[in-house]
């Protein structure tokens, strides 16, 4: 059973059809890439999964049960974490504090809340090690970290919130080559831990490196779905640009 099943998802913004009839299955232990030209509907779909947009039509199921994700809190409670490009990290807080933001471990002594600092630090070290994240000192502020290290912190935070589906919107767009490599390996490690991962990316090389499956959106519709081992970068690019022969009849209806 897939972790999440989206069926016939549609989203209208007034007269604009951002999504129409989208069926997608998202599986544990798998990296699913979402591809498509600007305006294809990728971010809108991600926001539906993140509880940030209510779909106009269609249904979502998580582990076989129908769900309504009416808010980001609903999505978080369902185990869905979304890491947007502009990472919501606090620059002047430490790595460890950022990982625990919103989920501080508190113990009460005579009714007074005491942060379980040592326990939090242990857990952060564990998560960073599991992801092989290479952050030298988790007690230093996030402000001094590189883009790739910031992605690692955001991923650790998602895991610390028990995310079962992690969605990343263009995580490598602003990164240098070495950093991109590191983030892609974090993405693989996430799936290796059994997480479902959705990766939105414009970078075909990145996608072919980490994704098990690829879904292409065009003008709000899902026009192709391929396993990595049954397609090529050329075919995927042809779907994205609309040049793929199988799309000709569709384009006429356009
Ligand atoms: N909040 C919004 N209000 C109105 N139109 C929107 C909104 N968000 C997205 N759209 C429109 O929906 C379509 C899909 O956009 P989007 O999901 O951002 O595409 P992508 O992420 O693939 O570039 C576009 O035509 C876009 O202009
Ligand atoms: Mg987008």
What does this structure look like?
The protein has 254 residues and is α/β, with parallel strands linked by helices. The chain has one domain: P-loop containing nucleotide triphosphate hydrolases (Rossmann fold), CATH 3.40.50. The chain has helices at 42-49, 72-77, 95-100, 117-130, 147-160, 177-192, 204-210, 233-241, 248-253; strands spanning 4-13, 16-26, 31-35, 57-62, 65-67, 80-83, 106-109, 112-115, 165-169, 196-200, 213-218, 221-227. The strands form three sheets. A six-stranded mixed sheet has the order 6-9-10-3-11-12, sandwiched between helices. Strands 2-1-4-5 form a four-stranded antiparallel sheet, with no helix packed on it. Helix 4 (117-130) packs across helix 5. The mean pLDDT is 90. Magnesium ion (MG) binds at residues 42-43.
């Amino acid at each position: 059973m897939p972790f999440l099943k989206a069926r016939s998802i549609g989203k209208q913004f007034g007269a604009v059809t951002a999504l129409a009839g989208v069926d997608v299955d998202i599986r544990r232990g798998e990296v699913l890439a979402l591809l498509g030209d600007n305006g294809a509907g990728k971010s809108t779909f991600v926001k539906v999964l993140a509880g940030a947009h209510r779909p106009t039509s269609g249904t979502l199921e998580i582990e076989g049960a129908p769900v309504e994700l009416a808010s980001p809190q609903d999505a978080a409670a369902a185990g869905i974490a979304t890491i947007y490009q502009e990472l919501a990290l606090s620059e002047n807080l430490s790595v460890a504090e950022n990982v625990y933001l919103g989920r501080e471990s508190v113990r009460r002594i005579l009714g007074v809340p005491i942060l379980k600092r040592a326990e939090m630090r242990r857990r952060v070290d564990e998560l960073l090690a599991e992801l092989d994240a290479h952050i030298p000192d988790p007690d230093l502020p996030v402000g001094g970290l590189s883009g790739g290290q910031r992605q690692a912190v955001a991923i650790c935070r998602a895991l610390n919130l028990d995310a079962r589906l992690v969605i990343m919107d263009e995580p490598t767009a602003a990164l240098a080559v070495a950093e991109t490599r590191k983030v892609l390996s974090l993405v693989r490690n996430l799936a290796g831990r059994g997480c479902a991962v959705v990766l939105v990316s414009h970078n075909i090389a990145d996608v072919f490196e980490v994704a098990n499956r690829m879904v292409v959106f065009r003008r709000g519709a899902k026009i192709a779905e391929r396993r990595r081992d049954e397609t090529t970068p050329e075919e995927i690019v042809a779907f994205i640009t609309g040049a793929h022969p199988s799309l000709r009849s569709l384009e006429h209806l356009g």
